[in-house]
Amino acid sequence: xxxxxxxxxxxxxxxxxxxxxxxxxxxxxxxxxxxxxxxxxxxxxxxxxxxxxxxxxxxxxxxxxxxxxxxxxxxxxxxxxxxxxxxxxxxxxxxxxxxxxxxxxxxxxxxxxxxxxxxxxxxxxxxxxxxxxxxxxxxxxxxxxxxxxxxxxxxxxxxxxxxxxxxxxxxxxxxxxxxxxxxxxxxxxxxxxxxxxxxxxxxxxxxxxxxxxxxxxxx
Length: 219
Hints:
- This protein is α+β, with helices and mostly antiparallel strands.
- The chain has helices at about 5-10, 35-40, 165-175, 180-200, 205-210, and strands at about 55-60, 65-70, 75, 80, 85-90, 100-105, 110-120, 130-140, 140-155, 160-165.
């Protein structure tokens, strides 16, 4: 797949995946009658409670190399580099006893954010890579990322699995996520899971297929 085809790949129509979350209108994001969320999202807890997950937004200033979060916190980035495929970032995580650095790639044309926690120990167990469905707005200086609260965890040498299901379901039920964004998150995650499965859940093989030849996670 060429660089230009990455954009075509993202714009190609994808199948819709129903989400069965009962709201006050008794409709789901595909406008079908509400169903049990456990049917399509695999929630073990059944119907979602009243807890509402806030929408998470962060903004990266590529000139100052600072990443600001909706919580009000900010972090200085040790790496902040615009690539043809997106944005490459790294920042130290001194508060984390197990990792010393968080590596993040934004792939805006695919609607994805890749995140990896680099272990403090050379012999420590590698943390899984997380691929999160996101919306990215950018200009010549800033990259604004909206977390769509659904993603994949891909452990090294193991099968990918969908994660953050209950956060996503609560956000849809509480109308934190708009129906269009919820549908986008579902389509993005299911499409990515299907694609990665074709490459035996090898992220680098999948990236190479997209003509992204940089090694993930970077050493």
